Amino acid sequence: MSFPNKPNNWIKGGGRTFEAANGLDTFLKTLEKEFFASVKVKCKYNNVENRADLILDLYLNFGIVDCLRHFNKGNWSDPTFSKESSENITVALTNAVEYLNAQNSHHIDILEMSFHFKETSIVVSRLYQKSIPEQIGDILYQIGHHFVYFTKGLTEMPYEIFVPVFEDTMFGKAPEQQQSGYFDYWGLYFDEAQQHKAMIYSLQKRKLQEEDLFLFE
Fold it and tell me: Where are the domains of the chain?
């Protein structure tokens, strides 16, 4: 199992960084409004493929439970993320990415999207083109649905959650075969007695376990 320390490997392979793309300010303001967050972006431009990949960091000045309750149609007593809210967020992010693409001559997609709450961070990696805009609502919905299980009955909060992690047999599969990959296994970091402990959470089994899985980067 591998959980590397988030290197800035987005500048490798001859890529160059840029600070702006047409419509980027509007795109970021949309994200800030939809997620109640301040947003930072890094860009990797590929000259050969005429495309740009975005690495987004969303900083939220509240806890993950507050977020889940807020998006549950205003019901602050239940941390379960509502299906309607998840669909609305998917539509909003998909539209924002489509707007950004319409403003530029090169293709733009999200490579990684991280949510930094007060007590934990959720890191979502791309599985296939447009997978994050298409799946972000369902991912957040499942985080709320499984919250009580991966927090060990609300007794311990992981300080990082990686969505997804894969068995090595998933690598090389076609995008349509990878679409369910977000909802098989997640990687979690816990801080136990000042020791960093990595665990795997199985969504099907609703259990934490130690397995030889790999972080999808």
Answer: 10-215
